[in-house]
Description:
- By secondary structure, this protein is α+β, with helices and mostly antiparallel strands.
- The protein folds into 4 domains: 2-99, 3-Layer(aba) Sandwich (Rossmann fold), CATH 3.40.50; 127-187, ATP-grasp fold, A domain (Dna Ligase, domain 1), CATH 3.30.1490; 193-321, D-amino Acid Aminotransferase, Chain A, domain 1, CATH 3.30.470; 322-405, ATP-grasp fold, B domain (D-amino Acid Aminotransferase, Chain A, domain 1), CATH 3.30.470.20.
- The protein is built from 14 helices and 18 strands.
- It has helices spanning 13-23, 41-44, 58-72, 85-95, 102-109, 111-120, 134-144, 167-177, 217-222, 243-255, 289-297, 301-311, 343-350, 386-398; strands at 2-6, 27-32, 47-52, 76-79, 128-131, 148-152, 162-164, 183-187, 192-201, 204-214, 229-232, 261-269, 275-281, 323-328, 337-341, 354-359, 377-383, 401-404.
- The strands form 4 sheets. The chain has an 8-stranded antiparallel sheet with strand order 13-12-9-10-11-14-17-16, with helices on both faces. The chain has a 4-stranded parallel sheet with strand order 3-2-1-4, with helices on both faces. The protein has a 4-stranded antiparallel sheet with strand order 5-8-6-7, with helices on one face.
- Strand 12 (261-269) and strand 13 (275-281) form a beta hairpin.
- The longest helix is centred in the first third of the chain and has 15 residues, at 58-72.
- It is globular and about 55 Å long.
- Adenosine-5'-triphosphate binds at residues 126, 149, 151, 157-158, 161, 186-189, 193, 216-218, 266, 278-279.
Amino acid sequence: MKVLFLSPHYPEEMQGFTRGLAEVGAEVYAVGDVPEGQLPAHVRRHLSGYIQAPILEEGRALADLLPIAERLGVDRIECLWEPCVLLAASLRERLGIPGMSRDTVMGFRDKTLMKQRLRAAGLRVPRFARVESASECFEAAEAIGYPVVIKPISGAGSADTYRIDSARGMEKVLRHLGHLDEANLEEFIEGDEFTYDTVSIDGEPRYESVSRYYPKPMEGRHNEWISPAQLTYADPYAQPEIAGGIALGRQVLKALGMGTGFTHMEWFRKPDGEVVFGEIAARAPGGKLVDAMNYASDFDIFREWARAACWRSFEGAPKRRYHVAAVFKRALGRGRIKGVVGLDALRRRCGPGLLACELTPLGEPRRDWLNTLIGDGYVMLRHPDLGEALAMMWQAVTDLKLYAG
Ligand SMILES: Nc1ncnc2c1ncn2[C@@H]1O[C@H](COP(=O)(O)OP(=O)(O)OP(=O)(O)O)[C@@H](O)[C@H]1O
Ligand SMILES: [Mg+2]
């Protein structure tokens, strides 16, 4: 089994998936845009070969990789990093290699197309419109009804996503955004926000996990003082309040023609209980959620994804024992980190439940909180009791503080 795996080391989770592929018996031929010498040694040792190619430029990368993949005789072409999932699909298609087609992958990549397909399947998505000018923004917002959300197509993450409550608010945001080429305008969905993540085989989820965001990612992105947090449920089937999201997620996978691999979906639960689709991607989630799945179940989802991708089988038996929380910190003040408060108390409270604590070291400059979710570091913790896991999480949110100056 020869696997061409795009981006074996970045983002960080990919290193675990590279290992997983090697551990299930694949010969891994990795493709990245850095020289081989820049790969960490623990990634390189799992590789049977490495090809440097401009994977962020689809046209050039295709031209480079098609003859190489053909010569190698690869059996799978996989990618779990969003910017390159279409390149992987194009390569598969051109070489007749099994896996999701480019058109199917587009349904997981293009936010307008995905909502059109889901709406056509009768699923609840936010009302939306694609707009290309300021006047279209006002018209669409009137038709959808305020509050709305605007998402510039070329924006990066929810840093460019805004809630708008009125026509005056629209004026302000349009001024702030400057020139508007193309944007998505959506009905603002009030309520709590969750993920629905799977490893699926031929469209059937073989493993499902649900996490809840605290607060909604958009709020965390727009307010520096917030420590974004997320809780991964030990056993999503034991939480009746998320059953509607799981049911929606399964329907979404069917409607979009999911094949084999990881999926990461976001969904909302409104105060009246209605469940609404947010977005989905055909890749693993970031933000430490893959680690959280492993800690929740004491198993190895990196390897199980690889087994699914290579052999269409899933042998992991998730123990579903722990609720796992991750809390991302942003230092208070500017400059270099000069103090950490609340860590000893957190250690005492969590005991062995404190799984990881990686904070920007004293003396180092603060990281840019707008550009990385991780910010000035994170802690992960777990507990079998949901109430206790949440209490530990809130302690990390409110009492653990980093100061810069
Ligand atoms: N229709 C909506 N109603 C309410 N909130 C929304 C809506 N659309 C987006 N948001 C908020 O904005 C966030 C970012 O939107 P979305 O996930 O679509 O963008 P993104 O570019 O994929 O961002 P990210 O990379 O953070 O996932 C969502 O997680 C949610 O908090
Ligand atoms: Mg999102």
